[in-house]
Every structure is written in structure tokens, then in C-alpha cells.
Amino acid sequence: xxxxxxxxxxxxxxxxxxxxxxxxxxxxxxxxxxxxxxxxxxxxxxxxxxxxxxxxxxxxxxxxxxxxxxxxxxxxxxxxxxxxxxxxxxxxxxxxxxxxxxxxxxxxxxxxxxxxxxxxxxxxxxxxxxxxxxxxxxxxxxxxxxxxxxxxxxxxxxxxxxxxxxxxxxxxxxxxxxxxxxxxxxxxxxxxxxxxxxxxxxxxxxxxxxxxxxxxxxxxxxxxxxxxxxxxxxxxxxxxxxxxxxxxxxxxxxxxxxxxxxxxxxxxxxxxxxxxxxxxxxxxxxxxxxxxxxxxxxxxxxxxxxxxxxxxxxxxxxxxxxxxxxxxxxxxxxxxxxxxxxxxxxxxxxxxxxxxxxx
Length: 359
Prior knowledge:
This protein is an alpha+beta fold. The chain has eight helices and 20 strands. The longest helix is centred in the first third of the chain and has 20 residues.
């Protein structure tokens, strides 16, 4: 018997499990043999306050101080390493999207000073508040913190059955029967499948495959270069040591699965980046893919459906889950426990609850 069963061992699951464990007994169940197997372990790992919609940006901004606090609280290495983001409008389509970004504009000449390998630049913006994230240090810190607070982590333990049992839930977790007063569904791309298993309405998740690769070419890579993102979201790249991490920013609809990269998407990333730079990328050293799961308005889903208390969603974090994890976890724990939300997180609960009008 546990107070809370958290399903999912990615950044969503471990972060909210840690926050919940300050007030309740928590069991974290992960279907895979290891935690962070899917999207979390394949993230580009960027903290960018200018990235995402209003809800995402609010949660990201509220996470900055928490990242610093977690380094001490969870005894981690530095979690954020500054790296500016250069938002690029290399053509009319890209330039048209820059006005919607909360990042200061810079001139094309300043963009080329920052990145001398750029070809023609119509417009650009620079976000100096961005950083690289040490994702695995953050994830491992939350895991260790959960255990230090008395929580339990079980891997290779899929939740195969889950039914309402009086005021709580009876679940088959791996080879054990578990009774929980509250279930937190942090199952990522599989969150709607888990909800269906429990007889709870779906939230309308749309898993999307995103491809990334590490490549090199004719120009030596300077590890201090910024993250360069197309403002129209058609590519991004940043240094990965002496090579480049590249992506075509693809969003290919997918069923929940262990996503694999497609050669055509990797080739598309190189072609798009070579078109706007003189980098001459041609060699791919490794490639991977992950699933980014969204609902219609691309904001996270936190809390329970009316009429289905005790089964709370913590899902729909798309490609933003890690950058906003510290604030979202604290906020989510308060929502699912019915406690006051943190005062520095300027997100009304109505904007993240299941069934909101935008969904």
C-alpha cells in the first residue's frame, strides 16, 4: 500500500515523485529496465526562456532559480552552463516569426559576428538567458532525492492493470499488486494508453517523432558557438564537443514507441543547415530520435478530470519538459495534492487542467 503511485521514470515522473515524497509515501514505477530510456535520455538539453508558448515560458522562467537551488538540495554538479541562443531569420519565413519571440533583436552583421559561418541573414535575435542543461545529473539528482525522502523506484515494472478500488486504485505493477490512494500518470507518450487502462478519458496526446544527429564537415567546430535555431522551427544546431548536434526540427506523428531515426530526416537536417551556413556538413557520426507528446494547445496537462478524482495527469510536456521541470514539478505536486501552488509560478490551474477549452 502506498499513498501515491507515479507511473513513468522520465524527467516528468522522477521530478514530481520527488516533490510528492516530501508529503506522501511514493512508489515510482517504470516499464523499462532503466529510467530515462526514451525522450528524457534523448533530449537536446537546452534551457531557453524564449522557447515555447506563454505557459511554457512562465514555467521555464520560474525554473531558473530552482535549478540553482537544486544543485545544493540534490547535491548535483552544475545543472546549467550558459550558452546563448541565436534565433535566425535567414529568409522571409524565418524573419516573419522573430516578432513573436521574447528575445532582443540584433542586426544581421551582429549575427555573423557571433557565427561567421552564416550565409545571408535577413533578421536575428539573441537570447543570452539560455543554457545547456546537464539532463542526466538533474534526473539522477531527483532519483536520489526521491529515495532519500523514503520513496521507492521500481524498474522493469509495467502497470498492466489498474482499477478503481473504493477511494483509491488497485494496480498490477510488474509482478506485484499495489494499492494507491492517488495515481499520477507521468507515462509520457503512453499517458493516454494508461488512462484507457484505468477507464479514465484520454487527454488527446499526439506523439511526434523528433530526429537528432551528431555531424561534422568542412569547418572546425568551436565549442563556444551558440545554439542556432531557425525562428520558423525548421532546424537547429549547436556544438557537441568538436562536432555539431543537428536536427531538422521534424514533428512526424507516431504511435507511442521506442522511436528510431529515419535516414531521410537526418539528411534533411544536414541539407537545411548547409543551405544557411558554410559548415559543409557531410559526415554523420550518430543519430537518434525521441517522441515529443503534445495536446492541442501545446501546454502541459496537470491534474485530474472532473468526475475522475485520484487519477492525475502529469503529461503533454512536448519538447519543453526538461527546461521547465523544476517549476512544473513543484507546481504539479501542489495541484494533484490540492495544495496552494507556488506563488512565483504565474500559471492559472485552468490553463493546464484536462478538459480546458483549448484542448
